[in-house]
Amino acid sequence: MGEIRTFVLLGQSGAGKTALAQAMLELAGENIKRPPEGPTQAARVHHLTWQKIPYFFLDTPGDDNFLGETRLAAWAADFAVLVVDATSPVKVQLEKAYAAAQEEGLPLLVFVNKLDQEKARLEDALCDLQEKLEICPVPVAYPLGEEETLRGIIDLLKLKVYIPEGRKVRVENLPEELKALAEGLRKNMVEFAAEGEDELLEKYLEEGELTPEEIMRGLKGGILSGKIAPVVVGSVARFIGVARLLDAVAELGPSPEARGPRLAEGEGTVEVSPSAEGPAVLAVFKTLVDPYAGRLSFARVLSGKISREGELYNPLRETTEKYAHLSLAQGEELREVAEAGPGALVVLPKLSETRTGDTLVSPGLNLRIPPPELPSPVLTYALHPESRADEDKIGPALAKLLEEDPTLRVSRDEETRELLLSGLGQIHLEKSVEKLRERYGVRARMSLPKIPYRETIKKPAQGVIYRHKKQTGGRGQFAEVHFHVFPLPRGQGFEFVETLTGMNVPRNFVPAVEKGVREAMEKGPLAGYPVVDVKVQFYDGKSHEVDSSDMAFKIAAFHCFKKAMEQCQPVLLEPVMELEVEVPEKYMGEVIGDLNARRGRVLGMEPRGKVQVVKAQVPLAEVQRYALDLNSLTGGRGTFRMRFSHYEEVPGPLAQKIIESARAEKAAA
Domain Tr-type G, which positions (predicted)? Predict the structure, then answer.
């Protein structure tokens, strides 16, 4: 059981993670279909065997539009291989991918790629890792040549040269002229290895050397403690260093047993040990709704052994799930297996209730592995189906998308009736709409959601009277109502007060009067937006013993309120959002200036760890695309949270534009 490796490939877009995955599979003799060209948008699961050890690994997206996939993949792994582009500095995407590894406490290996390309600088890449990610990179291999002259690597442990020949590797002795360089680098590696254990450090200080086995032991200790990250170098495109990385995974990557137990929530906190003899515990890290195979649940086996068919209990859903197949994923291909144990990444079909983030356990067990905290949506668009057929199909299609992607949100704005789709960025939402079209045949266009404006009044109107009288033969309609109308403080909503005296209006008509007012408030006089923050006092009126009715009083109240609004100086209100923006200090000036330009009010600033937090209030109309703008302002290093705060009056000239636009839209409808 200990001889298994489960890891995740992390890195920024373009670093070569997918190419590395393909190269590793080819070297291990796995012949699989190449994934589509272009950036990875979803985690892919693979497996291979190297040095008789089963490897399970996940290739993840580098783009933070798909950061949820990366977080879940890290949750399923025991350690991470950070793939670094030697031609490019550490970008924010790599920082966020590394943060996903940190959240899960994953030990690290590093593969520095593209050392055969122009402007590739290993030393610069290592310095960047140290300065920006604060990790301690320790090379266990070094490039033989640089840029276009790169032809292999030096193994610093064995002091041998590895030169690829096609898909094989030729091992040579170290040339004399490279011995001094290699021995100096090896000394550095041994010093870090010695710090992995007190016993090794003591021996190294006394004797000045460690055996290869002791070096390996010390490096393993350093990795598990998070003190060091061993570095392998090369070029995936030329298969340089790939075999050495596969070796390093076997030699240095922690097995499930070395990684140790996972903490679960049950009756208190429970440790789940990676034992094949224990009860089954699986963590579901991915869901795929396949048009042909149905729902596929991808799960990491944390404990126990599961067979080809059986039952598992889902404590969160309080349901037992039956399955009749057990598979391993190789990219898009599924391969059935008879059983799987701790460390394996398996696929279970047609689990009706289970969703991403759930835990599956042996029947009779009741515990749950806490899922990772996924990033919250930062951008929202309204979806408009292009036809009636699309409208009928969009609900079920979106439900399937949500099963696959827990970072998406779908809602319906009760006021505007718009269908809203929220996600992690522009590309995330565009690709989701693309999936709707290509997979489910649903066509929809995106637009910014309508702003839920409100209308209110600034001054009272007293003694407003409206009489409703209609005589058309037979029983007529008659009702007269007298109102005082007052503005209320912002956020107070609506207050209806009846202060009738005498018997001019029977009290049984009062509910109809209130109903008429409420209906009139649904569309204000300026632009048809709901009216808020008003008080209506129904103080008098007149009735007819035959012609008065609930309907007559409702109509009278409706028109009396509309009449009063015209006298009360109606104004337009807009929603104001509370923003909390986290940015590195060097971007503070630009971010604050930008918030001010958006009619925002900066409420305060405070340090929080390595970032500064700016708190502000900004109209919603100014921040609908703030995720994209903040990304541009800060190079992707800014984050924010936003929630509704209150309504405020829209400035006059801007209000007029909004009113004119709303009236034009109404006229065109």
Answer: 2-257
Give the whole-angstrom CA distance, residue 205 versus residue 194.
9
CB-based contacts of 495, cutoff 8 Å, min separation 6? 488, 534, 535, 536
Q: What is the pLDDT of residue 197?
A: 86
What is residue 498's three-state secondary structure? strand
**What's the pLDDT tens digit per position in 388-407?**
999 999 999 999 999 999 99
Interval 142-164: pLDDT, tens: 999 999 999 999 999 989 999 99
**DSSP code for 151:** -
Sorted by where each begins, the domain ranges of the chain are 5-158+226-259, 263-361, 381-447, 455-568, 573-654
pTM, two decimals, is: 0.88
Q: How far is CA 462 from CA 92, 97, 343, 475, in A?
A: 61, 63, 76, 32
Q: What percentage of residues in the chain have a pLDDT greater than 90?
A: 86
End-to-end CA distance of the chain: 68
Q: Which two tokens stand for residue 3?
A: 């001889």
Q: What is the CATH number of domain 573-654?
A: 3.30.70.240
Confidence of residue 666 (pLDDT cuts 50, 70, 90): confident
515 exposed, middle or buried (CB, 10 Å; 0-12, 13-18, 19+)?
A: middle
DSSP string, 55-94: EEEEE---SGGGHHHHHHHHHH-SEEEEEEETTSPPPHHH
Contact 576, 617 (CB under 8 A): yes
Q: Which CATH architecture has domain 455-568?
A: 2-Layer Sandwich (3.30)
Euclidean distance between CA atoms 584 and 639, whole angstroms: 10
What is the DSSP annotation of 371-436?
PPPPPPP-EEEEEEESSHHHHHHHHHHHHHHHHH-TT-EEEE-TTT--EEEEESSHHHHHHHHHHH
- The reply to whether 381-447 shares the fold of 5-158+226-259 is no
Q: Are strands 168-173 and 160-165 parallel, antiparallel or unpaired?
A: antiparallel
Cite the DSSP H helix spans in 136-291: 179-194, 198-207, 212-225, 242-252, 256-259
CB atoms within 10 A of CB 563: 17
- Reading the block at residue 637, the tokens are 């290093």
Fold classification of 263-361 is: Elongation Factor Tu (Ef-tu); domain 3 (2.40.30)
b/e burial code for range 426-445 (CB count within 10 A of at least 16 → b): bebbebbbebbeeebebbbe
The token duo for 125 is: 């890449």
> How many other C-beta atoms lie within 10 A of the C-beta of residue 316?
14
Let me know: does 503 contact 488? Beta carbons within 8 Å.
Answer: no
Over the stretch 184-213, which tens digit does the pLDDT of each residue have? 999 999 999 999 888 999 998 988 889 989
Q: Measure the CA angle with vertex 280, ends 6 and 7; round to 5°.
A: 5
| Owner of token pair 């299609």 | 397
Helix 588-597, helix 626-634: angle, nearest 10: 150
Q: How many CB atoms lie within 10 A of CB 586?
A: 10
d(CA 208, CA 192): 13
Q: Distances in Å between the alpha carbon of 439 and those of 39, 44, 60, 432?
A: 19, 18, 22, 10
For the domain made up of 381-447, the CATH class stated in words is: alpha beta
Which string of DSSP letters, residue by residue, matches 434-456? HHHHHHH---EEEEPPPP--EEE
Q: Which fold has domain 5-158+226-259?
A: Rossmann fold (3.40.50)
Specify the DSSP class assigned to residue 343: T
